[in-house]
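Entry 14. Two folds queued back to back today. First construct below, sequence then structure tokens.
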Amino acid sequence: MRKVTVTNNLSLDGVMQAPGRPDEDTRGGFQRGGWALPYNDEVMGRVMGEGMAQTGALLLGRRTYQDFAGYWPHQKDNPFTEVLDNVQKYVASTTLTEPLPWQNSTLLKGDAADAVARLKEQPGPDIAILGSGELIQSLRARHLIDEYVLIIHPLILGSGRRLFPDGAPAALRLTNSVTTTTGVVIAMYQAA
């Protein structure tokens, strides 16, 4: 059975919204975009690079897919670009239509959780989810997420979209952790 792993940047108060750029996701008036960038270091680069090397396929929600497709193919001097371009990408969306613009992208048909349940049963590489908060919530409700890699930054944002919203309990088991030179804790958890 294929494993589904969520990898996300989080603030200490659980915010996952717009870690990479000021204009990444301004929904709800969020103005703190790009908050994760000051915490990047060589330790994080190494750990994330190791994770990317093991990624067999990506699963993205519509917003994350459109953001990534508009950004990553144009980052020619970044080592992650080639990996992201070449990996199989599954996209959960009820509004996008095929053909999708980014190479190796496949639109999932029907209910996203049902489609992911089918993907997990098929032979193939493990699947990583980046960003995609709404998609994660629908998969969590169906117990389809096996692991979490949480990149926890030492700051409190006070507002923004959270990975674990109120009323969404989850039991997790820590399997590994790494602390970066900037105080970020990269914690790996299995769903209990």
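Second construct, same run, same settings:
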Amino acid sequence: MKKITFIFLLLATVMISCQDKNAFTVEGNFTENTFEGKTIYLQKIDSMEAQSFTVIDSCVIKNNKFKMKGALNGEAIMGFLSVGHIEAPEEESPMTTIVLEPGTIKVKFEKKDVTVEGTPKNNEFNKVLVTMNKVGTFFEELEKAGNINNMPLNAEGLDAKAQVEKLQEELLKANFDFVKANINNKAGQFLFFSSFTPSSFVQFSKEQVQEIIAAADSTVRNMPNIMTLEKEVNRVVPEVGLPFEDVQLVDMEGSRVALSKYVEGNKCTLIDFWASWCRPCIEEMPNLIKAYNTYKSKGFEIVGISVDDDRQAWHNAVSTHKMSWIQLGDDTRSASAIYAVNAIPHTILLDKDGVIVAKNLRGKELEDKIAEILK
């Protein structure tokens, strides 16, 4: 009997030890009492394809503080914090992503910013959040200014466009560094695949994707979606000096059409990848309108390729900004994949033979190149 009791005690000790090893605590505080007495939820999503979030734990915010606990079944995963369920949050609810891993994770909600720390991976991930906080602050200032041209120079003497480019580079680097270091766990994988959302502020380049995949172990590299992605990034992308590659798109009436239909017969064609939500794209439209009106009668054509998810937003933008040229939609993202479009606006200039002669020209540079081709 004593022997059996000893074995049960031993098993219980082992089980508690395993639980402690996989246990995590999330401790947080708010610098304002806006959400005092509200319920904050810690949630997870089981896969990128999942349609809903699973609640891990929840608690009432008291004295502007909260504390929740949980345990992992294995590797680190992404967790999501929100006041109210993430699908139906409280008005102006702060939300953040954290890395769920063993240890005590500390979260601080300030008026506009969020910081996380306390465990190794959250200390790493906080670099992403710091940059995202900067992005949020910039766009708040831009909204107040009403127009990108009304934005003053910052302390470094950069105008609004230069500030956007710098923030984009910072966010890309922070995401890339975290993903590369964590591609072998679910947290890194989640951030990796979420970075390919068309409307995302950050999208990885072909070279960065190759570098991330090279850092993955054999288990990750043998995942079907990783294998598909690796095959895609190793594909030869049409570059300057090569012919354009045909692709199926959708026109504004919803019919499936081939890009070649709108390229053949032109002396010069500009393919313009854009979206209604892309400020730099919209700001470039007056230059495109000028070039189109100047050179259309001489054999110049523009094919706009929208990457909008919202069909109505696409149509409205075409009408609002008087974009009278051909408009197609990249609804399957096939064109973006073929031409390795990692950021927009992205332009491709073709000659009469459909050969790519230049990429990503804007303003006067673009107009000069068109004039050179048509002379």
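Quick look at the second one. The longest helix spans residues 120-145. The chain is about 40% helix and 25% strand.
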